[in-house]
Design the sequence.
């Protein structure tokens, strides 16, 4: 039994992640018919990668499309090092940045950047943008089609993996389930990355959060039967139970491992909004209300249970529009219900007083830089026709700071100022009140903008549950009671 490491891919849609994994491993991780038909990855894909030293990595290939970022979060939660794909002809794109934000939130700091498609474009610009986004990462130009650079990439991955310690092989077994299926003659099979401990034939495990006990009939690692699988490996577990009794997001736990909880005390590297947030952990997500405890400590009061332990990482995202706020670490997985403490704002306290008040540096958001304020002013001036992120002269940190303080909102491949979105929403609802149903062309004409902007704005309001798409038109989800206009 060996302890292994898991490599996760990341990167924008159509930047060649799946083709790169196939070139490195010989495995096409696009396994679903709809993935083949559409040419994009929808679910997580898996393969084994043998490196020059003889080390074997378990590869998790994640989808890059914005709609599948939640699946990417599930895949990234269990990885040890990353392989970011950036296409030479595109450079850094919106999902490149969001995947980088997820990796940062999970503290996955070891990895490489592969500049793909170098057979059709010069890699120079893309490499420069990648180094700016992920300082310190090794950047390797490759072509999956010609094989150029693949040997160098394997060696660089070997060197990166050698610098990482193995996952702890002791302790209780914890496997977050990402797939469940039935094999004729074998029964129910669950797959996932084994976070800790070991699983072997005959072991008894507990399915959380249901609490059901189950016996292990057999174990495989990359399609090879083994007596016991160790931490860090991609594992398939054959279980003695019905298919309907287990689902993706459940956790197989051995011995005195973690149990389901509705509260987590966490240290966060972001300031959640005063509203519900999505908390991602393992292959599960839950809506929660974040209660400030002081400094950078928060209590996440979950609407559905998570199965976490102290030291685990979580990712926090906004509900609508969906955006990654940041991440944190679990301090207590079974806390009491604490009293809420107000979050002081920077306008209420001098910078020095912010640290003194609660004895922590993260009591309030850091002041925005001049560059960030300039970006905000530019977004406000651009109205409902802002530049694409790839054309915006802004550092990722400045955009992230603006988003965290509610002064910029990511919408598709660009950012809007929230005041602009409020104005556009008002226009859209006024239009729907008059006409009840609105198509893309009608909305475009109402705004006096292009189809590109009208499309992303409508999709934003769909996600924010302001509108509902019915065929090719939108309707208001509910009647909005309007305040009377000011008088006098």
Sequence:
């Amino acid at each position: 039994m060996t302890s292994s490491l898991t490599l996760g891919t990341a990167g924008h849609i159509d930047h060649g992640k799946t083709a790169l994994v196939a070139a490195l491993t010989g495995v096409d991780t696009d396994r679903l018919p709809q993935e083949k038909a559409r040419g994009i990855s929808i679910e997580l894909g898996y393969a084994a990668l043998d490196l020059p030293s003889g080390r074997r990595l378990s590869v998790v290939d994640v989808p890059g499309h914005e709609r599948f970022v939640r699946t990417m979060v599930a895949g990234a939660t269990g990885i040890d090092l990353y392989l970011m794909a950036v296409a030479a002809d595109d450079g850094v794109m919106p999902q490149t940045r969001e995947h980088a934000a997820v990796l940062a939130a999970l503290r996955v700091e070891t990895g490489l950047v592969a500049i793909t498609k170098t057979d059709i474009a010069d890699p120079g610009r893309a490499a420069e943008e990648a180094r700016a986004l992920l300082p310190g990462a090794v950047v390797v130009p490759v072509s999956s089609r010609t094989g150029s650079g693949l040997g160098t990439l394997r060696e660089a991955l070997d060197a990166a993996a050698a610098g990482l310690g193995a996952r702890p092989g002791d302790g209780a077994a914890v496997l977050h389930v990402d797939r469940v299926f039935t094999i004729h003659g074998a029964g129910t099979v669950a797959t996932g990355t084994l976070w800790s401990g070991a699983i072997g034939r005959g072991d008894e495990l507990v399915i959380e959060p249901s609490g059901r006990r189950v016996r292990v009939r057999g174990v495989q690692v990359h399609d090879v039967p083994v007596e016991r699988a160790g931490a860090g490996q991609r594992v398939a577990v054959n279980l003695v139970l019905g298919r309907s009794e287990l689902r993706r997001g459940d956790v197989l736990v051995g011995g005195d491992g973690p149990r389901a909880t509705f509260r987590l005390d966490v240290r966060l590297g972001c300031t959640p909004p005063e509203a519900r947030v999505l908390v991602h952990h393992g292959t599960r997500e839950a809506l929660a209300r974040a209660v400030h405890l002081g400094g950078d400590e928060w209590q996440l009061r979950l609407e559905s249970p998570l199965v976490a332990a102290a030291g685990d990482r979580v990712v926090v995202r906004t509900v609508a529009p969906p955006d990654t706020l940041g991440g944190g670490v679990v301090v207590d997985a079974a806390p009491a219900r604490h009293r809420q403490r107000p979050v002081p704002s920077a306008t209420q306290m001098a910078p020095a007083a912010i640290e003194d008040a609660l004895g922590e540096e993260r009591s309030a958001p850091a002041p925005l830089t001049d560059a960030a304020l300039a970006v905000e002013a530019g977004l406000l001036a651009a109205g409902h026709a802002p530049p694409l992120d790839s054309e915006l002269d802004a550092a990722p940190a400045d955009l992230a700071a603006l988003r965290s303080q509610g002064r910029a909102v990511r919408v598709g491949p660009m950012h809007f100022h929230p005041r602009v979105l409020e104005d556009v929403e008002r226009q859209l609802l006024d239009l729907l009140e008059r006409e009840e149903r609105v198509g893309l062309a009608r909305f475009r004409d109402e705004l006096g903008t292009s189809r590109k902007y009208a499309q992303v704005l409508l999709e934003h309001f769909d996600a924010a549950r302001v509108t509902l798409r019915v065929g090719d038109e939108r309707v208001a989800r509910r009647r909005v009671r309007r305040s009377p206009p000011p008088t006098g």
Remarks:
- The chain is about 25% helix and 30% strand.
- The domain at 5-162 is CATH 3.40.50.300 (Rossmann fold).
- Residues 418-435 form the longest helix (18 residues).
